[in-house]
Every structure is written in structure tokens, then in C-alpha cells.
Amino acid sequence: MTECFYERGLMMSSSTIGIFGGGQLGRMLALAARVMGYRSVSLDPGEDCPGSQVTDVHVVAAYDDLGAAEELAERSDFVTYEFENVDAAAIERIAELKPVFPSPSVLRVCQDREIEKTLMREMGIGVPEFRVVRSVEEAKSAVEAIGVPVVMKTTRWGYDGKGQSVVRDAGDAGLAFEGLGGSDDAPVIVEGFVDFAMEVSVVCARDMAGEMRTFPVSENVHVGGILDTSIVPARCSDEVKAEAERVAMRIAEGLDVRGLIAVEMFVTREGEVLVNELAPRPHNSGHYTIEGCVTSQFEQLARIMVGMPMGDVSLRSPTVMVNLLGDVWEAADGSPDWGAVLGMAGAHLHLYGKSGWRVGRKMGHITVCGETVEEALRVARAAREAAMGR
Ligand code: AMP
Fold first, then answer.
1. CA of 174 to the centre of ligand 1 (A)
2. If you measure from the C-alpha of residue 40 to the centroid of ligand 1, how many angstroms do you get, rounded to a whole number?
3. What is the DSSP letter of 12?
4. Which CATH superfamily is domain 196-387 in?
5. What's the CATH code, domain 129-192?
6. What is the pLDDT of residues 139-163, one digit of tens each?
């Protein structure tokens, strides 16, 4: 049941975009849609979540509340979802009522690492060596066959490095499997550890006619499994960039994506591109597009949803984004110095309006556009340090 319902006095007669989820991705999508005059509706259990602060209407309900999902559909012309760890039944119900971008079939693939990786392999797309295991015995023999180190991951409900464990000693395979809650019903994927030269991602936009545009390749640095920094242009060869874009487009086409798909990849030391993970939505590594590109990933999704032409995805200038996790608040005793950030030329501050900080929680980001990628990187890092009072 819907617990409560807010409506704001915004009277605009145009399409309404429905957003399942009320986090920062929904918030930035709603902001981009509003610039173009579209309305938005969000659904999230949090009353004062980041999305609810900017959408026209916010439905407060659990993600598995089918009645509330129907309400979201009824209030919207088109619907999208801002995270993939969501009850597929709710999205499927919405898709019976309104067009959903991307379709529930894409969501089903991206929700499950077993389906995702198996499909990539069937499509002839490079992925790290992997096996899916359902018992301690299977885990042990998979680790034996692949060879340590391996990364073991739950096939469902993982994000930002959660539900993962690196196994360096084959004798730990059983413990790791059990630690991840592995069982016959909860399979675990055992992946070869990739000694990558770099991690990159590509956000690919595909419209109703099947036309595709890929945003510039982002070089990503993760810390503790969470994205820390995105650097654009990525500091790899043009061949690697072209291959990463080609892989993203093949996936977008193969899955018949209408909307956005973000493809995270490893670049091996030999220059091979291996797919790590897919996300059928705007992506943290695409936040740089807000200031860095002519059209942002959020505006592009809104354009596709309402049936408008896609925008130019060209990079305006070298751009770096650094995430602001709750760790920044901790370092600054709860009150980061935003004045110091905003006092730095070229630094754009994004705060998501989350009420409580916690170490590891994504609270905001800083984007810096520069003359060179090195300059943008230096300023972005300095800006985050300044926020921490360093
Ligand atoms: P994921 O949740 O699968 O995106 O993993 C989070 C991060 O963990 C990745 O961005 C990598 O930095 C690291 N990681 C995941 N899988 C592997 C792997 N097979 N080899 C090396 N590093 C990995």
C-alpha cells in the first residue's frame, strides 16, 4: 500500500517521466527532464530521498508494492528504473501499462551475473574466465580449475563491490562460498582475477529506431570496489577506446536496449577488453557527462523516453569526476568545507541531498573540466581534499 503521497503545484502540460527509485540517478534524471519542460514522478520508500526533492510527484512505497507500481505507471507516460536490484515483478507490471526504458527483458539479464556473463560469452564478447557454482564442492573445483586468485561474487543483489570476496588461497574456497551465502538456490560466480591495466566504461544510448550514440570512454578508478574517479578521455590507445565502444554497441543492439546501457570493462595489459558488468541505466561513471559533454547521459535518456532526437555526445573538454562518499564527512568531522571546493576555478559541486552520511555512502560528486586531463585530475583531487580540510 502507498503510505503517503505528495503532489507539488507544478502545472506543465507535457510528458511525464516515471522513475522507479528515488536515489541520485533519479534526481539527476528529473533535473535534466525538467530543464526541457517535462514532468517527473518518482517511487521510493524514502519520503525525503534525493529523487523526491526534485520530482513533481513522489509516491512513498516499498519497491515490491505492486499497487504503488501501478500508481507510478498511471501517473507517467513513460517509465524507467534507476537501479537494477529491484523486484522484477513490479517493473513487469508497469511494462503492461506504460512503455518501460529499457524493457524488463534487459533488466532480467542485468540483474543476474550468471545470465549476464553467459549471454556475453554466447555473443562472443570477452569476459573474465568464470564458472557458476552451487555447492562447496563445486566452488572448490572451480577455484582449482581457474587458479587463484579468483573473485567470488553472488549472482544477484550485488553492487559497489558488495557480495564479493577475493580468494587468494585455494583452501579458502569453501569458506568464501559460505560467507557469500552460497547454496543451490543462491549460486555464486567464480571469476578469474583480472590483472587489468585499466578499468573503463561506456554509456551507450539507443533510441526507439535503433540508432546508437556512445558517450566518450571513461577511465575508472575504484577504491574498495566503489567508483572513486572517472577520467575522460581515458588514457588508453584509440584502438582500445574503439573496441570498448564497439563492445558497448554490440551489447546494446544484442539486448535490444531502448534507453541507456552502461558497460564496465577491464582492459588487460595486452590491450584486450573484457566485460565486467552491465547496468541498464545512467551510471556513476557517466556523471562527468553533465558538464563534460554537449548532452548529458540524463538528458539523453529523457530525450529517448519522450521520443525526441538524441543529443550530441561530444566531449567539450577533458573532464574528471571524483565521488564524494561519506568518508569525506568523516574526515571533516561531519561538515565538509564546500566553500573551499566552490572557490576552486572549474570545480562543479553536486550534492544529492541525503540526510545522513555513512562511510562508503555516495553523497555527491565533484566534476572538473580542464585544458588537459592532468590538470582536471589535479584540480578535482585537490577540491576533494579541500572539502576534507586538507
Ligand atoms: P563489480 O561489482 O563486479 O563491478 O566489481 C567491483 C570492482 O571490483 C571492479 O570495478 C573491480 O575493480 C574489482 N573486480 C571485480 N571483478 C574483478 C575481477 N574478476 N578481477 C579483478 N578485479 C575485479
1. 20
2. 34
3. -
4. ATP-grasp fold, B domain (3.30.470.20)
5. 3.30.1490.20
6. 999 999 999 999 999 999 877 777 8
